[in-house]
DNA sequence: CAACTCCTTAGCCATTTATCTAATTAGATA
DNA sequence: TATCTAATTAGATAAATGGCTAAGGAGTTG
């Protein structure tokens, strides 16, 4: 029952304090004490909320000496690579004409949630199509899901390296027997290009962005 | 502080019972008693949750004699007009090979949330750019927001009716003084077409779909 | 190892909330 | 009008949750 996970995710965002934390983190990582100050809460309370955000996969943390820095989950920030990223990430210009467009905060939230939704879709598709051994259970029929899976596999290839057809086939067979179809898909969907008999990964910028489909 | 609204929205989805209700409703409208039975809860409890879902704008209701039918918010269903709609709406084929693709439930949720996210974006943009009198405060610079606003205005025009340039100008001026720019945008963004000096609304299918932009 | 810093855990309290039962309202129908 | 049906409201209760304080790590630095 992955209903649980959905509910858990929304529970994580169903508290003003936690959302405020995310908004603060959208400007860059912060340590616990700072968060506590900014929100006028005790460090204990921050820990409490950080735990929930972490469980929902929304934040990450790293330790530097005694200090623990919290930040938004990397995937949420980099997965989209879309316009949303601009909104969320690192902007320090808090000076505007203070008029209408004042709800920058809302925009960030917007973006945050869009990213989270995408990531959840991605996770859900991979859960459905990839088994524990990492093998592809089947090739998704739905276009968007297919892209998710292809992207997933493409990420395992070395950028810049030239793969002879034989190697590509071997690579694919690790995950699915139908190497011919998948190899063709890699080309058709622009994950790779082919020169003579040699395959090479396209730069990530050329990969299709399933996040932009309905 | 529209943080409140965001939190309220997530609170609405932060309960398993409510999410189950939405899943049930995704197959079509249901009345309170039926929901109560299906979920093994009392009618009172259904009312309780329905109230929250309604406040979050996720469901609608209509009355027929003594019975009140709940359904997913129309906008959520029709706004997208995208693939998401397929997923959500009315599917009665619950027979599959029961294997991997078993989490249809998850897919619906997925879709639901995507739609809700879009609608929230739309609402947020309109809140920013439309004043209480319904006038346009300014023309959004961001493309996606601009589309939202144009769509909003275009909806107020009569489909199939031919508007002489003079009338279009008058129409637009009701909302914003810069009728020239907006009129041009309507054409450029394919909301309308022009024959000679006469403007007419394009069929909705031709309108741009901002929901598909990152 | 002693002292310091930052974070987490444990335990407590107040508030919110999911659910129920029982009483009430809204509307249809006889 | 009396009665029936479906939904809502009121009130109670138990559970979950946000916040605090105080004590306990974990890791650094003298």
Largest interface: A-B, 43 and 42 residues
Oligomeric state of the chains in view: homodimer
Largest sheet of chain A: 3 strands, antiparallel
**Which whole number gives the mean pLDDT of chain A?**
73
Order of helices and strands of chain A: HHEHHEEHHHHEHHEE
* Class from helix and strand fractions of chain A: mainly alpha
Radius of gyration of chain A: 21 Å
Helix content of chain A: 40-55%
Question: Number of DSSP helices of chain A?
Answer: 10
> CATH homologous superfamily name of the largest domain in chain A?
Winged helix-like DNA-binding domain superfamily/Winged helix DNA-binding domain
* Top-tier CATH class of the largest domain in chain A: Mainly Alpha
Number of strands of chain A: 6
Domain count of chain A? 2
- Unreliable runs of chain A, pLDDT <50, ≥5 residues? 74-105
Question: What form of chain A results from the Cα inertia axes?
Answer: elongated
Give the termini separation of chain A. 26 Å
Pfam families (chains A, B): DUF2087, HTH_5
Protein name (chains A, B): ArsR family transcriptional regulator
InterPro entries (chains A, B): ArsR-like_HTH, DUF2087, HTH_ArsR_DNA-bd_dom, Metal_resp_trans_reg, WH-like_DNA-bd_sf, WH_DNA-bd_sf
Keywords (chains A, B): DNA-binding, Transcription, Transcription regulation
Can you characterise this structure?
2 copies of one chain form a homodimer. With 214 residues, the first copy, chain A, is mainly alpha-helical. Chain A has 2 domains: 1-129, Arc Repressor Mutant, subunit A (Orthogonal Bundle); 143-212, Orthogonal Bundle (Arc Repressor Mutant, subunit A). Helices cover 51% and strands 12% of the residues of chain A. Chain A contains 10 helices and 6 strands. Chain A has helices at 3-12, 16-25, 32-39, 43-55, 74-78, 83-88, 104-129, 143-154, 165-173, 179-188; strands spanning 30-31, 59-64, 67-72, 162-164, 192-195, 198-201. In chain A, the strands form 2 sheets. A 3-stranded antiparallel sheet of chain A has the order 1-3-2. A 3-stranded antiparallel sheet of chain A has the order 4-6-5. In chain A, helix 7 (104-129) crosses helix 8 (143-154). The longest helix of chain A is centred in the middle third of the chain and has 26 residues, at 104-129. The relative contact order of chain A is 0.09. Residues 74-105 of chain A have low confidence and may be disordered. At the A-B interface, helix 1, helix 2 and helix 7 of A face helix 1, helix 2 and helix 7 of B. The structure holds a DNA duplex (30 and 30 nucleotides).
């Amino acid at each position: 029952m992955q209903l649980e996970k959905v509910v858990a995710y929304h529970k994580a965002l169903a508290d003003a304090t936690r959302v405020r934390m995310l908004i603060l983190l959208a400007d860059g990582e912060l340590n616990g004490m700072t968060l506590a100050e900014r929100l006028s809460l005790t460090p204990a309370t921050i820990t409490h909320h950080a735990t929930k955000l972490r469980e929902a996969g929304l934040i990450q943390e790293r330790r530097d000496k005694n200090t623990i820095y919290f930040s938004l989950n990397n995937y949420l920030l980099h997965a989209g690579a879309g316009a949303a990223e601009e909104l969320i990430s690192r902007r320090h210009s808090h000076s505007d004409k203070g008029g209408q467009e004042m709800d920058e905060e809302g925009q960030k939230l917007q973006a945050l949630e869009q990213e989270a939704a995408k990531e959840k879709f991605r996770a859900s598709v991979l859960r459905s199509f990839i088994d524990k051994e990492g093998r592809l259970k089947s090739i998704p029929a739905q276009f968007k899901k297919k892209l998710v899976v292809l992207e997933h596999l493409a990420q395992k290839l070395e950028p810049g390296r030239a793969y002879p057809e034989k190697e590509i086939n071997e690579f694919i067979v690790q995950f699915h027997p139908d190497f011919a179809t998948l190899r063709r898909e890699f080309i058709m969907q622009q994950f790779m290009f082919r020169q003579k008999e040699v395959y090479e990964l396209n730069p990530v910028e050329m990969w299709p962005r399933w996040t932009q489909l309905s």
